[in-house]
Amino acid sequence: MPYVQFREQHVHSSYVRTLRDMPSFGRPVRLAIIVRRFRCRVRECKRKTFSEQFEGLAERHVKRTVRLTAALQSLILRASSRTGGRLAQEMGIQTSPRTLLRVVNRGERSVAAPRILGVDDFALRKGQTYGTLLCDLETGKPIDILPGRLTEPLVQWLQAHPGIEVIARDRASAYADAARSGAPNTIQVADRFHLVKNVSDALKEIVDRQPWSLPEPKAVPVSSIVEAVPQTQLAQRLAERRAEAAGRRQQRYDLIQELLAKGESLRAISRDTGLNRATVRKYARIEAVPQPAPRRRRSHLDPFAYYLRERWQAGCHNARQLFEEIAERGYGGSASMVRTYLQSWREKPDRSSDAPRSHMNKVAWKNLRWSILSPREHLHADEAELLKEFLGMHPALERAYGLVQTFRQILKEHQVEELDHWLDEASRSEFLPMQRLSKSLTAGLAAVRAGIQLEWSTGPVEGQITRLKLLKRLGYGRASLPLLRARVTGIA
Q1: Is-contact 109 44, C-beta < 8 A?
Q2: The model's pTM
Q3: Cα–Cα nearest to 447, from 435, 459, 456, 437
């Protein structure tokens, strides 16, 4: 029998209920409320006594006021439990990280079905556990999180939320099957970014499948290379100081030579110029401006240079063995210093051949491969010229490159009428990756057409996933899926 509800005035007893409230001037506040217990006079009622409730002040069996609970929920939804606990202590609220975790409402929430739904997966634990994020694309806000990235959870959610008109998704078959089963009347939209990625991956597979001959590198003057290398501020200051010192030496030399030509003696030149007589004598005897001797830093290996040279000429070229021998004689440096010191004595391979080095081929191929996979508008003039020359050497690869650029143009200009022609060309091409891609796009042709025509995409969902990753890391070690759902959908 349900409880009888009526207005009762017969007081049975009373007790004091203590509630924690928001702090005042940084100090905790406790409310002591006298609660009356009334007597029920209905014999059929299961309850003989009942207590009065305070709607809007506190919930049943909770020792906090409603506004204090709301403040704690705001802290845990916007910060981690430990950070929220520290902030609460600074505000004068006595709580703990565990209490903050308990105040979050982790129950099932009623979610209104959006008109335009965006679906994408994210990693709870990369490579092992995944989830599905649902967003309202008209508002750009997340509305729910589902466990896993399989078909069944999304089917159940769609069936419980009718009224969705458009579903934007990636090209995963699980989401496509879920949309057909859970909301068969909706329009499915294949995301344009994933379409471009699929086409680019097909071209990447073609490019990486076999080695391609590269264009001959053009000779570049060494002077232009040197001029193109930017100098640091420190290098510029050192160059300026050297130029100033060279100018002073030149002026000094010209002055001494001029005075000598007039018949001045070395003593008189030293007295008139203020230079030391030895300096004047040195400048008088040379025929050109003296250049400073290169400075050489003293090395810890200098006392052992003669011994190392003898052992090297004797045929011992093992750096480790030579290091151990001089270490017994008092060397206190490292083995790597010995190895670097001996490197200049070893015979260097002949680099005079016209054939390019292998690592230069790798660098050139890496840059050229990037140019092939990039949109044309992202290339510089020299990159576009080199790519044109390379594709001219390989007509088959040029046809695959043309297919990719045509597909990008179809997406960019919403040329849905050109899609069938492109699929036909891709299916008849000599490249197996393009044939597989054509077959895959044809299987979901309606979603691909909608992706080209309509404006909706999963871009806002990707942005919310980036935010979700931050919230997930803030709750590292404690962020269960219900808590993560509350935090993602609670901060809106």
Answers
A1: no
A2: 0.59
A3: 456
pLDDT band at 421 (very low <50, low <70, confident <90, very high): very high
Residues with Cβ < 8 Å from 38, sequence gap 6 or more? 8, 9, 10, 11, 12, 49, 50, 51, 52
CA–CA separation, 203 vs 400, rounded Å?
7
State mean pLDDT over 20-48: 83
Question: What is the DSSP-derived secondary structure letter of residue 142?
Answer: E
d(CA 446, CA 441): 9
Record the tokens describing residue 310, joined without a space: 């003898």
| pLDDT interval class at 352 (50, 70, 90) | very low
Handedness of CA 77, 82, 88, 94 (dihedral sign): positive
- The per-residue pLDDT for 492 is 40
Query: What are φ and ψ of residue 124, in 5° steps?
Result: -80, -40
Which tens digits make up the pLDDT trace of 243-270? Answer: 888 888 888 888 888 888 888 888 888 8
- The one-letter amino acid at 39: R
- C-alpha–C-alpha distance, residues 377 and 424, integer Å: 26
Three-state DSSP state, 385 = helix
Surface-to-core class of residue 490, CB atoms within 10 Å of its CB (0-12 exposed, 13-18 middle, 19+ buried): middle
DSSP for 30-82, written as a single string: EEEEEEEEEEP--TT-S-SEEE---TTT--TT-SB-HHHHHHHHHHHHHS-HH
- The neighbouring-strand residues paired with 142 are 135
pLDDT band (50, 70, 90) for residue 137: very high
Q: Poorest-confidence range of 274-288, 414-428, 459-473?
A: 274-288
User: Is residue 337 exposed (0-12), middle (13-18) or buried (19+ Cβ within 10 Å)?
Assistant: middle
User: What is residue 14's three-state secondary structure?
Assistant: strand
HEC assignment per residue over 291-356: CCCCCCCCCCCHHHHHHHHHHHHCCCCCHHHHHHHHHHCCCCCCHHHHHHHHHCCCCCCCCCCCCC
Q: Is the dihedral of CA 137, 142, 146, 149 positive or negative?
A: positive
Q: Which two tokens stand for residue 235?
A: 């290098």
